[in-house]
Design goal:
Blueprint lengths: L2 H11 L4 E7 L5 H13 L5 E4 L10 H12 L4 H12 L7 E5 L1 H7 L1 H11 L3 E4 L8 H9 L3 E3 L1 E2 L5 H10 L4 E4 L12 H12 L6 E4 L5 H8 L4 E4 L1 H9 L5 H19 L7
Parallel strand pairs: 1-2, 1-9, 2-3, 3-4, 4-5, 6-7, 7-8, 8-9
Helix pairs in contact: 2-4, 2-12, 4-6, 5-6, 10-12, 11-12
Protein backbone atom coordinates (compact mmCIF):
# COMPACT_ATOMS: atom_id res chain seq x y z
CA UNK A 1 0.00 0.00 0.00
CA UNK A 2 1.39 3.41 -0.98
CA UNK A 3 1.92 6.21 1.51
CA UNK A 4 -1.00 8.05 -0.09
CA UNK A 5 -3.33 5.06 0.27
CA UNK A 6 -2.18 4.60 3.86
CA UNK A 7 -2.90 8.24 4.66
CA UNK A 8 -6.39 8.16 3.17
CA UNK A 9 -7.14 4.87 4.93
CA UNK A 10 -6.18 6.49 8.23
CA UNK A 11 -8.33 9.51 7.43
CA UNK A 12 -11.29 7.22 6.75
CA UNK A 13 -10.76 5.33 10.00
CA UNK A 14 -10.81 8.61 11.91
CA UNK A 15 -13.71 10.16 10.01
CA UNK A 16 -11.46 12.97 8.89
CA UNK A 17 -11.22 14.89 5.61
CA UNK A 18 -7.88 15.35 3.91
CA UNK A 19 -5.97 18.58 3.39
CA UNK A 20 -3.70 18.82 0.35
CA UNK A 21 -1.79 22.12 0.10
CA UNK A 22 0.26 23.09 -2.94
CA UNK A 23 3.49 25.04 -3.17
CA UNK A 24 5.93 25.42 -6.06
CA UNK A 25 9.43 24.00 -5.65
CA UNK A 26 11.96 26.81 -5.54
CA UNK A 27 9.49 29.55 -4.61
CA UNK A 28 10.33 31.99 -3.11
CA UNK A 29 13.82 30.40 -2.93
CA UNK A 30 15.14 26.83 -3.13
CA UNK A 31 16.45 27.17 0.42
CA UNK A 32 12.92 27.77 1.75
CA UNK A 33 11.18 24.92 -0.07
CA UNK A 34 11.96 22.19 2.44
CA UNK A 35 11.20 24.40 5.48
CA UNK A 36 7.88 25.26 3.83
CA UNK A 37 7.13 21.57 3.23
CA UNK A 38 7.89 20.81 6.86
CA UNK A 39 5.63 23.68 7.95
CA UNK A 40 2.80 22.31 5.80
CA UNK A 41 3.14 18.89 7.42
CA UNK A 42 3.26 20.41 10.89
CA UNK A 43 0.16 22.48 10.10
CA UNK A 44 -1.86 19.37 9.29
CA UNK A 45 -1.28 18.62 5.60
CA UNK A 46 -2.16 15.04 4.73
CA UNK A 47 -0.50 15.17 1.30
CA UNK A 48 1.81 17.86 -0.08
CA UNK A 49 1.52 18.77 -3.74
CA UNK A 50 4.85 20.14 -4.92
CA UNK A 51 4.77 22.00 -8.21
CA UNK A 52 7.51 21.31 -10.74
CA UNK A 53 8.37 24.69 -12.31
CA UNK A 54 7.57 24.90 -16.01
CA UNK A 55 7.65 27.83 -18.41
CA UNK A 56 4.16 27.28 -19.84
CA UNK A 57 1.84 26.16 -17.01
CA UNK A 58 -1.36 26.14 -19.06
CA UNK A 59 -3.75 25.07 -16.29
CA UNK A 60 -2.50 27.64 -13.80
CA UNK A 61 -3.68 31.15 -13.18
CA UNK A 62 -1.42 34.18 -12.76
CA UNK A 63 -0.56 33.51 -9.11
CA UNK A 64 0.96 30.08 -9.71
CA UNK A 65 2.44 31.26 -13.01
CA UNK A 66 4.38 33.89 -11.05
CA UNK A 67 5.56 31.21 -8.61
CA UNK A 68 6.84 29.10 -11.52
CA UNK A 69 8.63 32.10 -13.01
CA UNK A 70 10.33 32.90 -9.71
CA UNK A 71 11.41 29.26 -9.30
CA UNK A 72 12.80 29.09 -12.84
CA UNK A 73 14.79 32.27 -12.22
CA UNK A 74 16.10 30.53 -9.11
CA UNK A 75 17.38 27.69 -11.29
CA UNK A 76 14.83 25.10 -10.18
CA UNK A 77 13.58 22.48 -12.63
CA UNK A 78 12.67 18.83 -12.36
CA UNK A 79 16.06 17.56 -11.18
CA UNK A 80 16.33 20.19 -8.45
CA UNK A 81 12.73 19.49 -7.42
CA UNK A 82 13.57 15.82 -6.95
CA UNK A 83 16.61 16.78 -4.89
CA UNK A 84 14.37 18.90 -2.65
CA UNK A 85 11.99 15.97 -2.15
CA UNK A 86 14.95 13.79 -1.17
CA UNK A 87 16.06 16.45 1.32
CA UNK A 88 12.54 16.60 2.80
CA UNK A 89 12.50 12.81 3.13
CA UNK A 90 15.54 12.90 5.40
CA UNK A 91 13.39 14.48 8.12
CA UNK A 92 9.90 13.25 7.16
CA UNK A 93 9.37 9.66 6.09
CA UNK A 94 5.57 9.66 6.39
CA UNK A 95 3.97 12.69 4.69
CA UNK A 96 3.06 11.79 1.10
CA UNK A 97 4.48 14.06 -1.61
CA UNK A 98 2.87 14.42 -5.03
CA UNK A 99 4.68 16.13 -7.89
CA UNK A 100 2.31 18.27 -9.94
CA UNK A 101 3.44 19.55 -13.29
CA UNK A 102 3.59 19.09 -17.04
CA UNK A 103 4.79 16.48 -19.50
CA UNK A 104 7.68 18.37 -21.09
CA UNK A 105 10.22 18.06 -18.21
CA UNK A 106 9.41 14.37 -17.80
CA UNK A 107 9.74 13.68 -21.51
CA UNK A 108 13.04 15.60 -21.57
CA UNK A 109 14.39 13.47 -18.72
CA UNK A 110 12.91 10.29 -20.15
CA UNK A 111 10.04 8.40 -18.59
CA UNK A 112 12.16 5.48 -17.37
CA UNK A 113 14.77 7.73 -15.80
CA UNK A 114 12.05 9.88 -14.24
CA UNK A 115 10.42 6.82 -12.67
CA UNK A 116 13.76 5.72 -11.23
CA UNK A 117 14.74 9.18 -9.96
CA UNK A 118 11.32 9.99 -8.50
CA UNK A 119 11.20 6.69 -6.64
CA UNK A 120 14.73 7.19 -5.30
CA UNK A 121 13.84 10.70 -4.09
CA UNK A 122 10.78 9.49 -2.18
CA UNK A 123 7.97 10.78 -4.41
CA UNK A 124 4.60 9.15 -3.72
CA UNK A 125 2.43 10.42 -6.57
CA UNK A 126 2.64 12.23 -9.89
CA UNK A 127 -0.02 14.44 -11.45
CA UNK A 128 0.89 15.44 -14.99
CA UNK A 129 -1.66 17.96 -16.20
CA UNK A 130 -1.20 17.29 -19.91
CA UNK A 131 -0.92 13.49 -19.84
CA UNK A 132 -4.42 12.40 -20.91
CA UNK A 133 -5.32 9.06 -19.34
CA UNK A 134 -6.29 7.65 -22.75
CA UNK A 135 -2.66 7.96 -23.87
CA UNK A 136 -0.59 7.12 -20.81
CA UNK A 137 -1.61 3.73 -19.49
CA UNK A 138 1.98 2.57 -19.90
CA UNK A 139 3.19 5.58 -17.92
CA UNK A 140 0.67 4.82 -15.17
CA UNK A 141 1.85 1.22 -15.05
CA UNK A 142 5.49 2.34 -14.89
CA UNK A 143 4.66 4.62 -11.97
CA UNK A 144 2.83 1.92 -10.05
CA UNK A 145 5.75 -0.45 -10.68
CA UNK A 146 7.92 1.83 -8.52
CA UNK A 147 5.16 2.40 -5.93
CA UNK A 148 4.22 5.87 -7.23
CA UNK A 149 0.53 6.68 -7.67
CA UNK A 150 -0.50 8.19 -11.02
CA UNK A 151 -3.06 10.88 -10.21
CA UNK A 152 -5.40 12.40 -12.77
CA UNK A 153 -7.64 15.42 -13.12
CA UNK A 154 -11.37 15.41 -13.73
CA UNK A 155 -13.35 18.52 -14.64
CA UNK A 156 -16.98 19.67 -14.70
CA UNK A 157 -16.93 18.89 -18.42
CA UNK A 158 -15.70 15.28 -17.97
CA UNK A 159 -18.11 12.80 -19.52
CA UNK A 160 -19.13 9.57 -17.83
CA UNK A 161 -16.93 7.70 -20.31
CA UNK A 162 -13.91 9.82 -19.41
CA UNK A 163 -14.56 9.40 -15.69
CA UNK A 164 -14.54 5.63 -16.18
CA UNK A 165 -11.32 5.79 -18.23
CA UNK A 166 -9.61 7.88 -15.56
CA UNK A 167 -10.88 5.63 -12.77
CA UNK A 168 -9.28 2.62 -14.49
CA UNK A 169 -5.75 4.08 -14.49
CA UNK A 170 -5.71 6.38 -11.44
CA UNK A 171 -4.54 5.47 -7.96
CA UNK A 172 -3.92 7.43 -4.79
CA UNK A 173 -6.73 9.92 -5.34
CA UNK A 174 -8.56 11.76 -8.08
CA UNK A 175 -8.28 15.53 -8.35
CA UNK A 176 -11.60 17.11 -9.31
CA UNK A 177 -11.23 20.59 -10.77
CA UNK A 178 -14.14 22.48 -9.25
CA UNK A 179 -14.65 24.98 -12.06
CA UNK A 180 -14.09 25.74 -15.73
CA UNK A 181 -10.98 27.87 -15.59
CA UNK A 182 -7.49 28.03 -14.16
CA UNK A 183 -6.09 27.79 -10.66
CA UNK A 184 -6.92 30.69 -8.37
CA UNK A 185 -10.28 31.54 -9.93
CA UNK A 186 -12.87 32.74 -7.45
CA UNK A 187 -16.21 31.49 -8.74
CA UNK A 188 -16.57 28.25 -6.79
CA UNK A 189 -20.01 26.65 -7.26
CA UNK A 190 -20.30 24.28 -4.31
CA UNK A 191 -23.72 22.97 -5.35
CA UNK A 192 -22.41 22.01 -8.78
CA UNK A 193 -19.41 20.26 -7.22
CA UNK A 194 -21.70 18.46 -4.82
CA UNK A 195 -23.75 17.14 -7.70
CA UNK A 196 -20.70 15.71 -9.50
CA UNK A 197 -18.83 14.08 -6.63
CA UNK A 198 -21.32 11.19 -6.17
CA UNK A 199 -21.16 10.49 -9.90
CA UNK A 200 -17.37 10.23 -9.74
CA UNK A 201 -17.35 8.15 -6.55
CA UNK A 202 -19.83 5.70 -8.05
CA UNK A 203 -17.21 4.86 -10.69
CA UNK A 204 -13.92 5.29 -8.84
CA UNK A 205 -12.32 3.21 -6.11
CA UNK A 206 -10.05 5.99 -4.85
CA UNK A 207 -10.75 9.13 -2.79
CA UNK A 208 -11.70 12.37 -4.50
CA UNK A 209 -9.99 15.66 -3.67
CA UNK A 210 -11.36 18.97 -4.92
CA UNK A 211 -9.28 22.01 -5.86
CA UNK A 212 -9.32 25.28 -7.86
CA UNK A 213 -11.26 28.19 -6.34
CA UNK A 214 -10.76 27.32 -2.66
CA UNK A 215 -9.68 30.54 -1.05
CA UNK A 216 -10.43 30.49 2.68
CA UNK A 217 -11.81 28.59 5.66
CA UNK A 218 -15.42 28.99 4.49
CA UNK A 219 -14.84 27.52 1.03
CA UNK A 220 -12.61 24.78 2.49
CA UNK A 221 -15.37 23.79 4.89
CA UNK A 222 -17.93 23.72 2.10
CA UNK A 223 -15.79 21.37 0.04
CA UNK A 224 -14.91 19.21 3.07
CA UNK A 225 -18.61 18.46 3.49
CA UNK A 226 -18.82 16.82 0.07
CA UNK A 227 -15.33 15.58 -0.88
CA UNK A 228 -12.66 13.36 0.66
CA UNK A 229 -10.02 16.08 0.56
CA UNK A 230 -9.54 19.80 0.02
CA UNK A 231 -6.77 21.02 -2.29
CA UNK A 232 -5.56 24.61 -1.89
CA UNK A 233 -2.73 26.29 -3.76
CA UNK A 234 -3.07 29.85 -5.08
CA UNK A 235 -4.01 31.29 -1.69
CA UNK A 236 -0.85 29.79 -0.18
CA UNK A 237 1.28 31.20 -2.99
CA UNK A 238 -0.26 34.64 -2.34
CA UNK A 239 0.86 34.32 1.29
CA UNK A 240 4.36 33.43 0.14
CA UNK A 241 4.37 36.50 -2.12
CA UNK A 242 3.13 38.95 0.49
CA UNK A 243 4.89 37.82 3.68
CA UNK A 244 8.29 39.22 4.61
CA UNK A 245 10.96 36.70 3.64
CA UNK A 246 11.94 36.10 7.26
CA UNK A 247 8.32 35.29 8.16
CA UNK A 248 7.19 33.38 5.11
CA UNK A 249 7.42 29.90 6.66
CA UNK A 250 5.51 30.94 9.78
CA UNK A 251 2.92 32.83 7.71
CA UNK A 252 2.21 29.74 5.61
CA UNK A 253 2.08 27.57 8.72
CA UNK A 254 -0.51 29.89 10.29
CA UNK A 255 -2.62 30.01 7.13
CA UNK A 256 -2.69 26.24 6.63
CA UNK A 257 -3.28 25.59 10.34
CA UNK A 258 -6.39 27.77 10.09
CA UNK A 259 -7.64 25.83 7.08
CA UNK A 260 -6.97 22.57 8.94
CA UNK A 261 -9.02 23.73 11.93
CA UNK A 262 -11.87 24.78 9.65
CA UNK A 263 -11.94 21.40 7.94
CA UNK A 264 -11.87 19.59 11.27
CA UNK A 265 -14.94 21.52 12.39
CA UNK A 266 -16.78 19.73 9.59
CA UNK A 267 -15.27 16.33 10.38
CA UNK A 268 -14.15 16.20 14.04
CA UNK A 269 -11.16 13.96 14.54
CA UNK A 270 -11.86 10.61 16.15
CA UNK A 271 -9.30 8.82 18.26
CA UNK A 272 -7.35 6.31 16.24
CA UNK A 273 -8.36 2.71 16.79
Amino acid sequence: MSRIAQRFAELARRGRKGLIPYIAAGDPTPELTVPLMRALAEAGADVIELGVPFSDPMADGPVIQRAAERAIRNGVGLKRTLALVAEFRRSDATTPVVLMGYANPIEHMGRAEFARAASAAGVDGVLVVDYPPEECEEFAQAMRAVQIDPIFLLAPTSTDDRIERVARVASGYLYYVSLKGVTGAGHLDVAAVGARIPVIKSRAQVPVGVGFGIRDAKSAQAIARIADAVVIGSRIIEEIESAPRERVVEAVRELVSGIRRAIDEVSPVKEAA
